[in-house]
Amino acid sequence: MSNVALTFYTGLKNPALFDPKFDGSQGTNRCHAPPKINGPDGKPAARDVDAVTAWLDLTTNPHTRRQKRKEIERFMLWCLFERGTHLSSIAVNDVIAYYNFLTDIPAEWLGPRVPRGPNWRPFEKRKPKNNALGPREIDGIGTVIHDYAKQSLSPASIRQTKVILADCFQWLTKVRYLDFNVFDKKIISAKQDRIKINVERHIPSDLLPWFCQWLDNLPADDKTAIRWRFTVAFLILTGLREAELASAKMGDVKCTKSKGQLRWFITVTGKGNKVRDVPIVRIETLMRYRESMDLYPTPLVGETTPLWIPLRGKGNVTPSAIYASIKDMVKMAAKDLYQLAIIEQEPQKRSVLLNYVDVLNKMSPHWLRHSFATTQVANGVQLQHIQLAMGHSSITTTENYVTIEKNAMYDAIALAEKNHPPLPLV
Questions:
Q1: Region 84-102: what's the mean pLDDT?
Q2: In this structure, how many other beta carbons lie within 10 angstroms of the beta carbon of residue 82?
Q3: How high is the pLDDT of residue 120?
Q4: Which residue intervals of 48-207 are DSSP H helices?
């Protein structure tokens, strides 16, 4: 495996996938009739790579396409390197084996988040949860050596993998490339649970003031700090996904007039290529950001400047670039908060601060989206309005955030109850 692992980074271009022994042209699950999709030569698709590429081409949203490509690429590499076969010949027991593999991923398949190259691996290695905080690494005392021997995907990630692969195989069966859908949940008894968002991943209301003040204390003229401040404020104000922020242009911001008031919106394309207008209730946030970046305060009609302005060159903005920038920011904030925690004399306060250090270390751009939703629920905004702003296809998804507010309500009442006058004994 160690030698084979060096070719992981070639992904769907791996030479083995074009070898007649492994390209799927002689697959045992191939439909006997010619498929209804063509390969790059204009003839009916004969290889797995060509069929999968046709399936990927159905998805025009860049973020969704990357997610689908990641999952099918992982699976095809697993078929090749772990089972010695190809997509067109796997059986039901292979599918079950792959699900088990995702709960116990070998070290050879794990690597850091790096560009494609010999060090790239299909799965990103991460620190164990019990060492996610890593304060001993921060102060340099007793550095922990983390064990990356094996790793498991989260249950939510595994469910998403099942959904994407089942969709792929269902389509390949419908276009008669494959004879049978081995991912049919009725056959393998793999219940496809609805992927439930983890609404707990939002910035705690007690932490947010400190975090905002920390951002404000960064150098006023530092472009990176300016963009950090804008990103945090804008995502909490609008609830955009990081992929939506990455693809947005300044010209997508538009102004309308209603009831004598100017109303600002940004038009974004979300999941499923659904276009929606999201309110910008504090346009001054965007205007100050533009001025700090040497731009005219209000966006111009048709302006192609990326909303998340690149600091070097004029390259395309990617969700991964936004993710990496936010992770750099929260790690820096976590280190500063840790320094405050270790000098705190009161044990209870120190424990709270250390917990917030853990929160900051785990934070990602999507937490800011969740913070938008929980804030709107707490402020009594109707769920239908929140659903429209966030681009949820179902109100059921938006209702997840009500649970957070119920918990906050319970805590508030429980705290008040401590000061309640004595009640009759029952």
A1: 89
A2: 16
A3: 82
A4: 48-56, 62-81, 92-102, 135-139, 155-174, 185-188
